[in-house]
């Protein structure tokens, strides 16, 4: 059956995927906004939440790549009309991923203070980092489990279930943040930063449980581990390893940015925490069309519909660009109120406002990178995605970061490095897609 590549089909996938995608940054943004306004040590708590959040995001993104690999394989089998042949693969992939996550989780617990020292956390901020991480880290395997099931749903061309799960998790997290951080007079004492950590952990647990129930009730894919190992497991592991290396390169940039911001001082890491959460929020917002490209791209490739692939790339880029323009207008209109949502510290806000415009102007560039990134994942082009991230990080981001530092550009230099980083990523994907698929259009 031919896949329709039109406004309705794309948006039926992209809109729920957008809502689901922004749930994770909403969790972080909620923590940032509420923690940043804590009446006791608000600046230190905000800095700690930013450092820990960046480190946990690194772990999740590094090990959460199985989601994209599962989605790519399932969607390609679906497009080829051979879905029955791959139904034992998801359980094997999930068990492998969760086992690895537990090993990493347990290994970090004993050296976490040293890790945060490497990120330039000291004194009270370091103490807060350790306490916050000791709670948040247990949500790590829960999130990986949820992500893997989301990959199955995407491969089956469904983003509605992930949207319902994500909305529930986000709303629950916001409610628990207010309840546990500030307390309820006469019933619950304020827990401040630790309350935010427990709110996130509980929300992650609820989302994992819901994902499990939806998988059992709504699909006929089982999580029962069966042998022998599926022939595609090796391909999935190779794809995941390529994405693993890619995620390491990606997080090298994110962690270096946090480290350089922390080295500049408390107000800079506070401002960077606000900025990076907004950057992630906008990225996931735009990435809804990347998710549609991921889902439909794999199916179209499996069906060898190259004309459909070309049409899909043009449409999701156009729709994603429209979303980014709306975000740019809203960001400039509410430039100052947005900052005040996250902190009441004037020195932090002034620092943030000094780079916010760079973040806003990067949105169209980010759009091209994210939507094509999603398509390439769906088509299984993990090796190329790996090479693009390695080049963008070590030939673009890192040199620009340290050159701007050398020339004394300070905090602005970090965000200029992000701009260059995304421009390289987007440009490389446009070049590769046109080079690979334009010739195929002439033969179909």
Protein architecture, described:
The longest helix has 37 residues, at 266-302. This protein has helices spanning 7-21, 23-36, 42-63, 66-79, 89-109, 112-118, 123-136, 140-155, 160-182, 192-218, 232-264, 266-302, 306-333, 335-340, 346-361, 363-378, 382-406, 410-441. Helix 3 packs parallel to helix 12 and helix 16 (363-378) packs across helix 18 (410-441). It is built from 18 helices and no strands. The chain is globular. By secondary structure, the protein is mainly alpha-helical.
Topology at a glance:
Blueprint: H1 7-21, H2 23-36, H3 42-63, H4 66-79, H5 89-109, H6 112-118, H7 123-136, H8 140-155, H9 160-182, H10 192-218, H11 232-264, H12 266-302, H13 306-333, H14 335-340, H15 346-361, H16 363-378, H17 382-406, H18 410-441
Number of strands: 0
Kindly state the percentage of residues in helix.
over 70%
Largest sheet: none
How far apart lie the N and C ends? Answer: 17 Å
Average of pLDDT: 85
| Contiguous runs where pLDDT drops below 50 for at least 5 residues | none
Radius of gyration: 21 Å
| Succession of helices and strands | HHHHHHHHHHHHHHHHHH
Shape annotation: globular
What structural class do the secondary elements suggest?
A: mainly alpha
- How much of the polypeptide forms β-strand, as a percent range? under 5%
Number of helices: 18
């Amino acid at each position: 059956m031919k896949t329709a590549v039109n406004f309705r089909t794309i948006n039926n996938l992209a809109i729920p995927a957008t809502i689901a995608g922004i749930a994770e940054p909403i969790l972080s943004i909620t923590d940032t906004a509420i923690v940043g306004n804590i009446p006791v040590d608000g600046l230190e708590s905000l800095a700690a939440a930013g450092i820990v959040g960046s480190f946990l995001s690194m772990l999740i993104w590094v090990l959460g790549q199985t989601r994209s690999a599962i989605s790519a394989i399932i969607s390609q089998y679906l497009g080829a009309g051979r879905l029955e042949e791959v139904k034992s693969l998801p359980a094997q992939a999930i068990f492998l991923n969760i086992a690895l996550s537990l090993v990493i989780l347990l290994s970090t617990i004993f050296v976490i203070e040293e890790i945060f020292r490497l990120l330039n956390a000291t004194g009270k901020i370091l103490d807060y980092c350790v306490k916050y991480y000791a709670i948040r880290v247990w949500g790590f395997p829960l999130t990986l489990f949820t992500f893997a099931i989301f990959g199955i749903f995407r491969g089956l061309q469904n983003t509605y279930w992930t949207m319902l799960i994500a909305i529930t998790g986000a709303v629950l997290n916001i409610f628990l943040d207010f309840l546990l951080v500030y307390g309820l007079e006469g019933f619950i004492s304020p827990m401040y930063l630790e309350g935010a950590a427990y709110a996130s952990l509980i929300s992650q647990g609820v989302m994992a449980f819901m994902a499990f129930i939806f998988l059992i009730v709504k699909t006929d894919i089982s999580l029962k581990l069966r042998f022998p190992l599926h022939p595609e497991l090796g391909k999935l592991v190779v794809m995941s390893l390529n994405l693993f290396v890619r995620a390491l390169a990606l997080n090298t940039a994110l962690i270096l940015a946090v480290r350089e911001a922390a080295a500049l001082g408390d107000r800079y890491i506070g401002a960077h925490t606000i900025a990076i959460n907004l950057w992630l929020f906008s990225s996931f917002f735009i990435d809804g069309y990347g998710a549609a490209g991921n889902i439909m791209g794999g199916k179209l490739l499996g069906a060898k519909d190259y004309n459909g692939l070309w049409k899909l790339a043009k449409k999701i880029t156009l729709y994603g660009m429209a979303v980014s323009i709306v975000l740019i207008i809203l960001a400039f209109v509410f430039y100052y109120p947005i900052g005040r949502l996250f902190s009441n510290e004037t020195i932090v806000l002034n620092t943030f406002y000094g780079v916010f415009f760079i973040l806003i102007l990067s949105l169209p560039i980010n759009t091209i990178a994210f939507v094509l990134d999603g398509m390439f994942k769906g088509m299984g082009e993990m090796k190329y995605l790996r090479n693009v991230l390695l080049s963008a990080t070590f030939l673009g981001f890192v040199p620009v970061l340290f050159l701007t530092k050398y020339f004394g550009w300070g905090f602005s230099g970090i965000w200029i490095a992000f701009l260059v980083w995304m421009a390289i990523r987007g440009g490389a994907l446009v070049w590769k897609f046109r080079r690979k698929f334009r010739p195929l259009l002439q033969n179909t």
